[in-house]
Amino acid sequence: MIGSYVATIGFWTWRGLIAAGLVLWTLVRPGLRFISAALVVAALIALTVDVTRWQTGAEGPLFQSLNHQIRSAAPATLDGIGQTLSGGIHPLLWNPLLTSVLALPAWFTLVALGLLLGYAARERRQVNIFIN
């Protein structure tokens, strides 16, 4: 008898958590789409700057990495992020993983992140299989 009450309470608690998660995701999804669009615009700007620098006299395409872009804008930012991630989460998250991502060209990193966020925040299409 007590087991059935506990199972019922667990069931409704789980249903409530699912409903709260769906409401939260519904509220967060437009913000993720906006951030996705902003990242794609930033990637377009970074690509334009790189191609313009190449056209004005450089010998070849000089695609600057995201690491270089962030260090030129705010030098202490990457050091702080590296110390926080290495000390707080795990050193392997910063050194081989994120530093290799930051070494990629800035436009490529930004467009990849923007497309991933856009894909995650897309509107799901539901198919009604019972329509005649």
Separation, N- and C-terminal Cα atoms: 44 Å
Strand content: under 5%
Tally of separate helices: 5
Largest sheet composition: none
The helix/strand class is mainly alpha
Shape by Cα distribution: elongated
Task: Please write the string of helix (H) and strand (E) elements.
Answer: HHHHH
Task: Provide the gyration radius in Å.
Answer: 22 Å
Which runs of at least 5 residues are low in confidence (pLDDT < 50)? none
Number of strands: 0
Average pLDDT, to the nearest integer? 86
Helix content estimate: over 70%
Structure report:
With 132 residues, the chain is mostly helical. Helix content is 78%, strand content 0%. It has five helices and no strands. Helix 2 (66-73) crosses helix 5 (106-120). The longest helix has 54 residues, at 2-55.
